[in-house]
């Protein structure tokens, strides 16, 4: 998949937490031209914006503010540009987090809450992602396929429009939302970059969708 | 449903896998990234590198192999050994690891667990507990299992169950529990030790030490309450493949992740 004659461009927001090598490599394997952005100014005309991350909401929001990312991310999603949020990068899209009381981006309705009734916490390991509806990001991936999770909190869509954003659910003591999609926004609670061939397939689908969006809007 | 994990562990020194393997078709079976990729393709749910480099120059080499592994094996990677500070942990994660495992350093400096968890989240901090049964009753060791360090040679006067609870309070997101009595004996995991700990903590417990066959994996989970099982030699020596172990686990009714090829058949 290319955009015209070039590779799809992907910006990965680097706000200082953890391993970025795996997501960059998964995107590269999908044929993308990947760059890291430590500040918003370094987001260089991508076809896809990726916010990865693990950890707590409050320090992450602080680093996003320091990097000048908050308004650019809101504007990007508001313009329905291709966006992928992973784990904390999904949770931050909601209005706030019960983990530490942080006010988060408020792009999706609802809050990040503690996983209820979990037999083990953190929820660490491979678990089934059960889709509620079809979505091109999961093209070629078996129903209820296993993906890798590592988290204690989950984004819980609530309020007007919340039901439509739910793409997939997973069971760990209780059912929780493991993927959301609205327009060209995709958010996943699991780590596709650590989910073997299923994860690589999903990342490749997302890159292809982003390239098609750019090609379509340019035509 | 959450799958029970099977985790091969590679001992690494100065950039090389220390214990030999039987993968005759690997061009370089001593190269950690090559072996890691092989295990990932065979169905390893995670990988652990235990760095046993004696010399400090081994560290740079370790970061290099972590990065080369992250570029080839798309399953989670934990690095144990040699992490002495938040900065060490940052370097290992930045190179492409997802978690670190703290052992002797956590005993010597328990607050290190808290500092690492505060910076990178509990989910990235595994505390490894090496334990052995005490020979005679000791009021300081009410569970009958004591913590040992330095490869099991040195007791530190801590009760293993009390230490496990303390580690969770400090911020550990997982516990890797090794029975030094069973390690290398091929007599199975110490399910009593595992149960003592897993029944008292909410974090996942990874069982280690003593695996000789697939039935031992089943026992660690069913009887020991473990969430995951770590093993080294039975995979390295090709006594069993990961798929064979998982097939026995599945037959025993345990939820396991099958690879795409297996799921398709």
Task: Summarize the topology.
The complex is a heterodimer of chains A (219) and B (265).
Chain A: E1 9-13, H1 21-29, E2 33-37, E3 48-51, H2 57-66, H3 70-78, E4 83-86, H4 88-91, E5 110-114, E6 123-131, E7 145-151, E8 153-157, H5 162-165, E9 166-172, E10 174-182, E11 185-188, H6 196-218
Parallel strand pairs in A: 1-2, 1-3, 3-4, 4-11
Antiparallel strand pairs in A: 5-8, 6-7, 6-9, 9-10, 10-11
Chain B: E1 5-13, E2 16-17, H1 32-42, E3 47-51, H2 58-70, E4 77-80, H3 86-95, E5 99-102, H4 104-108, H5 111-120, E6 125-133, E7 145-149, E8 154-159, H6 160-170, E9 174-179, H7 191-198, E10 205-208, H8 214-222, E11 228-231, H9 233-236, H10 242-251, H11 260-264
Parallel strand pairs in B: 1-3, 1-11, 3-4, 4-5, 5-6, 6-9, 9-10, 10-11
Antiparallel strand pairs in B: 1-2, 6-7, 7-8
Helix pairs in contact in B: 1-2, 2-3, 8-10
Describe the structure.
With 219 residues, chain A is α/β, with parallel strands linked by helices. Chain A is built from 6 helices and 11 strands. Chain A has helices at 21-29, 57-66, 70-78, 88-91, 162-165, 196-218; strands at residues 9-13, 33-37, 48-51, 83-86, 110-114, 123-131, 145-151, 153-157, 166-172, 174-182, 185-188. In chain A, strands 2-1-3-4-11-10-9-6-7 form a 9-stranded mixed beta sheet, sandwiched between helices. A two-stranded antiparallel sheet of chain A has the order 5-8. The mean pLDDT of chain A is 95. Chain B has one domain: Aldolase class I (TIM Barrel, Alpha-Beta Barrel), CATH 3.20.20. In chain B, 36% of the residues lie in helices and 22% in strands. Chain B has an 8-stranded parallel barrel with strand order 1-3-4-5-6-9-10-11, surrounded by 8 helices. In chain B, strand 1 (5-13) and strand 2 form a beta hairpin. In chain B, helix 1 runs parallel beside helix 2 (58-70), helix 2 packs parallel to helix 3 (86-95) and helix 8 (214-222) crosses helix 10 (242-251). At the A-B interface, helix 1, strand 6, strand 7 and helix 6 of A face helix 3 of B.
